[in-house]
Amino acid sequence: MAHRILIATSRYYDHISRELEAGALEALSDEDVVTEVIEVPGAFEVPGIIAMAADSGQYDGYIALGCVIRGETSHYDYVCGESARGLMDLAVKRRLAIGYGILTVENEAQALARADRKQKNKGKDAADACLAMLKMRKKFVR
């Protein structure tokens, strides 16, 4: 039976997020999965939408994608920290299989290198992490 995976993508840096999403979808294309993509405004909203989706019981795993680039204020620290904390809380407390692909970088060049499917391909890494956690959950949760 195919796993259902939700990809929650922040559209704040749309060109970067689309490349991350393409990397994740490519990685999943050879797997026995059904994917759905949902868009949210920014990285801060990703944990919330994954929590809502988890409550629906429709999905087996989740992939969190987006990008936060450091700016001139402390806003960066709050968005990075709270989105990561929110996702970790969901993974630990609710035992969700979440692949983490929210880039936290100093500048756009770093983001582009990490998102690019021909370079670091962090979208693929997030998809691979989700699949790995689904396998682990199957081993431990009966």
TrEMBL record:
UniProt cross-references to NCBIfam families, sorted A to Z: lumazine-synth
Protein name, per record: 6,7-dimethyl-8-ribityllumazine synthase
Keyword Transferase: yes
Pathway, per record: Cofactor biosynthesis; riboflavin biosynthesis; riboflavin from 2-hydroxy-3-oxobutyl phosphate and 5-amino-6-(D-ribitylamino)uracil: step 1/2
Active site, per annotation: H75 (proton donor)
Cellular component GO terms held in the UniProt record: cytosol; riboflavin synthase complex
Alphabetized UniProt keyword annotations: Riboflavin biosynthesis, Transferase
Gene3D superfamilies in alphabetical order: Lumazine/riboflavin synthase
Record's function text: Catalyzes the formation of 6,7-dimethyl-8-ribityllumazine by condensation of 5-amino-6-(D-ribitylamino)uracil with 3,4-dihydroxy-2-butanone 4-phosphate. This is the penultimate step in the biosynthesis of riboflavin.
Enzyme class, spelled out: transferase
Catalytic reaction(s) noted: (2S)-2-hydroxy-3-oxobutyl phosphate + 5-amino-6-(D-ribitylamino)uracil = 6,7-dimethyl-8-(1-D-ribityl)lumazine + phosphate + 2 H2O + H(+)
Gene name of this polypeptide: ribH
A Pfam family hit: DMRL_synthase
Ligand binding ((2S)-2-hydroxy-3-oxobutyl phosphate): E72, T73, R114
UniProt GO MF annotations: 6,7-dimethyl-8-ribityllumazine synthase activity
Domain of life, source organism: Bacteria
Keyword Transferase tagged: yes
Enzyme Commission (EC) number: 2.5.1.78
Ligand binding (5-amino-6-(D-ribitylamino)uracil): Y12, A43, F44, E45, C67, V68, I69, Y100
Gene Ontology biological-process annotations: riboflavin biosynthetic process
Family as reported in the entry's similarity comment: Belongs to the DMRL synthase family.
